[in-house]
Write a structure and sequence with these properties.
The protein is α/β, with parallel strands linked by helices. It has 2 domains: 6-234, 3-Layer(aba) Sandwich (Rossmann fold), CATH 3.40.50; 241-246 and 258-513, 3-Layer(aba) Sandwich (UDP-N-acetylmuramoyl-L-alanine:D-glutamate ligase). It is built from 17 helices and 16 strands. The chain has a 10-stranded mixed β-sheet with strand order 7-16-15-14-13-12-11-8-9-10, with helices on both faces. The radius of gyration is 27 Å and the shape is elongated.
Length: 517
């Protein structure tokens, strides 16, 4: 799915209004109804709901939500943050509608009696928000182009300090979608627990720095016409199941192991053979015909007993990797998990870079070694894949002040070295040599455990061995890795989930893509 800039999203709304056709006020009703549906299914009907509405169309959304909740029997208080005469036409219409409903519906439990009117005034006390309340934030939408100040800033601070559960509509008020929110130390932005955002998604939702504002975000489809989306040229995408299903290579009934490639993994050192085992097991579970592992000599019996399906080519040294085997038999090569940072291992990595004519999958200690020898980066085979976590990426590519800046550095790194970068984390970001970025949607915090990255390296190496192109391997690899983690979460929970659980659920992950789960 394409991730559109805010201006393009606005144009998508206008296109839908003009071509469905649907009136703008009815599209507002549709968007608000989607939010209303989520609230009804997730909020205790005994809770008091306070809806804060701006004078623009986001405020109009909030007023529709408030009206629908009143009609459903919820206890609702609604507030307009500016004079009625400053409202957008649709906001004003929906303000009149909610006034009518709150006065005329016999079962409504709306309450505005503690104020002369539901219109907030800068010179009057702000309404009390109890910790047990639910706040619906519809003050500003995604079209805001300036920092929040004055009365609205005071109101946002009041909401943030209340301790109530906050549900933001489209985006939290004050939130910047297409650039960082941290140009100032403490931006004036509502800190939501949930954000009900409208499809297509916004870029800022995918960055860790914004979780404090967005909380958990839920993407709601409000029927924006799909015909408009292909006309927009974008660089950002949200990876979905359907994208990965299109990538799968179906197997011929008469296929044999020689049809699915031979993967080589260089991994492990004294005390870190677990990384080699995890990467190898994951590689095998991703479908290559053959897997060979280059490990220190002392690791050979460990590997042969722990992963009997893999072949082992031992190094001459007992505890570290100091050399590489003949590379000609292998269709993919992954290096890094558990290899350590010794100078002899660094020389082996340099030799691998010089001799490989195929793209490499570079992870963990291999990335750290390259960060200490950056002149080697210019010799990395084009199409290679780096799989760093944020600290490893910082070491090899440099520091950044914000996640938006880091994303730009990631794109520049991919372009400069004609490689793919898989920056691991929530919404793992995959950048390409031509400047595109794909954000993964599977995975969970339980996967933040030792060995999870080694598993991903094994998966991507195994996919590359079968003839998947580098980008296909990245996309499919991160998706099935995260999906396997989600299956593992269902049985193990966040705390008990370990890397082996991800491997053990890879079968379910692939089955799911084939439609068997």
């Amino acid at each position: 799915m394409k991730i559109l800039p805010v201006e393009d999203i606005r144009q998508a709304d206008l296109y839908t209004i003009g071509h469905e056709p649907i009136s703008d006020i009815d599209l507002m009703e549709r968007a608000a109804a989607a939010c209303f549906g989520w609230i009804v299914n997730n909020v205790d009907p005994e809770k008091k709901i306070k809806v804060f509405c701006g004078t623009g169309n986001n405020g109009g959304d909030g007023l529709v939500i408030g009206r629908l909740l009143i009609q459903k029997g919820f206890t609702v208080e609604y507030f307009l943050t500016g004079p009625v005469e400053t409202c957008s036409p649709n906001c004003r219409i929906n303000f009149e509608r909610i006034i009518s409903v709150s006065k005329g519906t016999s079962h409504a439990k709306s309450s505005i009696s503690h104020l002369p009117s539901p219109i907030l005034q800068p010179n009057q006390p702000l309404p009390v928000i109890e910790k047990t309340d639910i706040v619906v934030d519809a003050i500003f939408g995604s079209g805001l182009t300036r920092p929040v100040a004055g009365f609205q800033a005071t109101l946002i601070h009041h909401i943030n300090q209340s301790g109530a559960v906050v549900v933001a509509i489209d985006v939290p008020s004050g939130f910047s979608c297409d650039s960082t929110n941290f140009l100032v130390r403490e931006p004036v932005v509502v800190k939501a627990d949930y954000t009900l955002t409208f499809s297509p998604p916004k870029l800022g939702l995918f960055f860790p720095e914004n979780e404090r504002f967005t909380g958990k975000w839920i993407l709601l489809d409000i029927g924006i016409m799909k015909e408009y989306i292909p006309t927009r040229e974008v660089k950002n995408f949200m990876l979905e199941k359907s994208d990965c299903q299109k990538l799968l290579k179906k197997r011929n009934k008469f296929a044999h192991k020689g049809n699915f490639g031979h993967a080589l993994l260089l991994c492990g050192s004294a005390g870190k053979m677990g990384a080699a085992i995890l990467a190898t097991r994951a590689c095998l579970r991703s479908g290559p015909g053959l897997v060979t592992v280059r490990t220190p000599k002392a690791g050979m019996p460990v590997m042969q007993s722990a992963v009997p399906e893999a072949m082992v080519t031992p190094d001459d040294e007992p505890d570290i990797i100091t050399s590489i085997p003949d590379l000609s038999p292998y269709s993919s090569i992954g290096i890094g998990p558990g290899i350590g940072l010794g100078p002899q291992t660094g020389k082996a990595l340099k030799l691998l870079i010089q001799q490989s004519v195929k793209p490499l999958i570079i992870d963990a200690d291999a990335i750290n070694l390259l960060s200490e020898n950056k002149t080697w980066l210019g010799f990395i085979p084009h199409g290679s894949i780096f799989t760093p976590h944020p600290k490893e990426f910082e070491r090899i590519a440099g520091k950044s002040q914000t996640d938006f800046e880091r994303n730009e550095i990631q794109r520049e790194f991919s372009f400069r070295y004609q490689c793919y970068v898989v920056l691991k984390g929530a919404y793992t970001a995959i950048t390409t040599p031509d400047g595109q970025c794909f954000f993964n949607t599977t995975g969970n915090p339980g996967m933040a455990t030792g060995g999870s990255g080694d598993v991903l390296t094994g998966i991507i190496t195994g996919l590359m061995a079968q003839g998947y192109q580098p980008l296909e391997s990245c996309l499919l690899g991160v998706y099935v890795h995260g999906l396997a983690g989600d299956f593992a979460l269902a049985s193990e929970g966040y705390e008990a989930l370990i890397a082996s659980d991800i491997i053990n659920n890879l079968g379910k992950s692939f089955h799911s893509l084939y439609g068997k789960f």
